[in-house]
């Protein structure tokens, strides 16, 4: 089966991991900061906080903003469940806003329509790597005094034009308080499991670091004091100032991530050339819609998603031929847990639901060969010739 997504591991990646295994620190060592700095510099953000996965990144981001009971947050139904679950983890109420019918990201006007007096945070998801309309979302957030967390699990290396026409990278937090990435193996770069939170805000950076590590503070100027003998000026002293987690990312994983960052632009160009070739070959099939890129956007194309009313038959046929085509995402509001706990039902977000009935994810990752892509294209064409 040609998988829809897969990690791309080079010999220098393997060597970087071996070097850490032979070094003093397997975790909380120097590689963590190197990786954080590399991603922050690449995106143009002040801070990067490496965490154990993209779900943890979203959880930490929501906690750092003080999201909690009685609050309400809005994300896209067309996403992996983690984008909404982070709200539930904080005992806040998840809600959704329907998507744009061309780029399948949350539609800013729908987002604004769902805002209530309890809404605290908007969580736009850069679906498939295509950036959301962040200028419009930021305007809405400012108007209603809301926080914004960009879920950029799909979009490391994606970019868009800001209001001056300059290109800004997703992760620069130009139009958000925090941005989160995932480094799961199918993502643009990988650390096995892994994630990162980006921010330009020093206080949010501090809070994220605290939450990532059990809420433990080691910076003496920030100590609150513990009523016991034993000095806060001792090197072993620490204070747990908040309830946090062990969401740390190891040095082994950070070394892999750092090394992968060295060829991020190369990986993105390969993904974009696969996207261009698919689009060129499939755009004239009238029963199929190929993924478009808005002229203000640059997508790192995490996924190649076409849509067709013949999705189920096509998907079945492709899988029978050894092509790991997929359908994603099942709209989150229709998942049993969301229906049971929040009363969502079929028809609540019709664009997402209709998108899901038609979406077809074709394999897209740097290891796909020319022959494999030709075979996939020919298989799709052959299906439409027959119907
Ligand atoms: C949009 C989105 N957000 C969040 C996540 C969670 O990332 P992770 O699997 O690293 O926890 C994913 C993972 O697939 C995702 O696709």
Overview of this structure, please?
With 387 residues, the chain is of the alpha/beta class. The chain folds into two domains: 11-256, Type I PLP-dependent aspartate aminotransferase-like (Major domain) (Aspartate Aminotransferase, domain 2), CATH 3.40.640; 264-386, Aspartate Aminotransferase, domain 1, CATH 3.90.1150. 37% of the residues lie in helices and 14% in strands. The chain has helices at residues 11-21, 30-43, 54-64, 82-89, 108-113, 134-144, 202-212, 251-261, 264-282, 311-320, 336-342, 350-358, 370-386; strands spanning 47-51, 72-75, 93-96, 119-123, 147-151, 159-161, 167-169, 178-182, 195-199, 216-217, 239-240, 297-298, 304-307, 359-362. α2 (30-43) packs parallel to α8, α3 (54-64) packs across α4 and α3 crosses α7. The radius of gyration is 22 Å and the shape is globular. Pyridoxal-5'-phosphate (PLP) binds at residues 53-55, 79-80, 82-83, 125, 151, 153-154, 182, 184, 195.
Task: Offer a quick outline of the entry.
It contains 13 helices and 14 strands.
CATH topology of the largest domain: Aspartate Aminotransferase, domain 2
Largest sheet, spatial ordering of strands: 1-9-8-5-4-2-3
* Rg (CA only): 22 Å
* Helical residues, percent: 25-40%
- Overall CATH architecture of the largest domain: 3-Layer(aba) Sandwich
Alpha-beta classification: alpha/beta
Distance between the termini: 24 Å
Q: How would you sum up the global shape?
A: globular
Total discrete domains:
2
Major beta-sheet overview = 7 strands, mixed
Number of strands: 14
